[in-house]
Amino acid sequence: MAGNWLLLRPSVEGWGYERGAREIDREGERCGHGFKSKAHPALKAFMCGSLSGTCSTLLFQPLDLVKTRLQTLQNSMHPGSPKVGMVTVFLSVVRTERLLGLWKGVSPSFMRCIPGVGIYFSTFYSLKQHFFLERGPSALEAVLLGAGARTVAGVCMLPVTVIKTRFESGRYNYVTVLGALRSVYMTEGPRALFSGLTATLLRDAPFSGIYVMFYSQAKRSLPQEATSSVYVPLLNFSCGVMAGVLASLVTQPADVVKTQVQVSPHLYRSTGDAVCCIYREQGLKGFFRGAVPRSLRRTLMAAMAWTVYEQLMARMGLKS
Questions:
Q1: DSSP per position, 112-152
Q2: pLDDT in tens, 161-173
Q3: Using CA atoms, how far apart are residues 177 and 97, in angstroms rounded to an integer?
Q4: SS3 letters for 176-221?
Q5: The pTM is what?
């Protein structure tokens, strides 16, 4: 690569593009060895985010499935019925659908998370570069930054989110994601593909905003020597876990409402109707059904996604 690098400058200077040569030199000095792609930074952020989303989705899909099953159980709504917890649902899925049943819905999860996380991080990076190039965002600005990026990604990927939720619920016999999208569109209309939009945004935008705020504030509180040590990935992951737990608990009620609306859209006229129905039938604790698997999944997924993303961005010479 070093030989190829040296060949680039004469050709550029031969064309009379001295400025281009200087930029290539600066790029080479910044990257150390070789000539790195001139892809747009937002595209690089998309690629880093997509890769981080792939890793985290594959690892933590079983927790998402257990969470969805817990939230859609009907027998636990009736008085006197035995309490059903996360471990019970987990063992039931393994017993009736085998071990791979825990990854049911992983295809729509991939279709949602790979581009979705990429859109989120590229939007986040673009907004941060535009508004906070010279300084770090304050706590409130971090909330708005994270919420704005998540809103864009959430709206773009909502149809796939609806299909993912239905796959995981076990109530629908969809074979493929595209077939499911076509079936919902033909039988229920395009509006069904955006069911739960309000609840989704009420869940995802605050989660991301609160997460970014706690994450950035936690990292800012670290001593300077720690941020330049070999333990940076571990420190980033630890900050992400703390931020994820707090953000998950705050947004858990919205997640329950979103799941109910997307799995059974015919039962509720609106998001408010779903809220009233859940409270009437299950009380306040109904809004925290599935909190444990969701908190575990969202916390670990977000912490891993941010850690992988920041490491990849650093390797590309970009400030995340």
A1: HHHHHHHHHHHHHHHHHHHH-SSS---HHHHHHHHHHHHHH
A2: 888 888 877 788 8
A3: 19
A4: CHHHHHHHHHHHHCHHHHHCCHHHHHHHHHHHHHHHHHHHHHHHHC
A5: 0.69
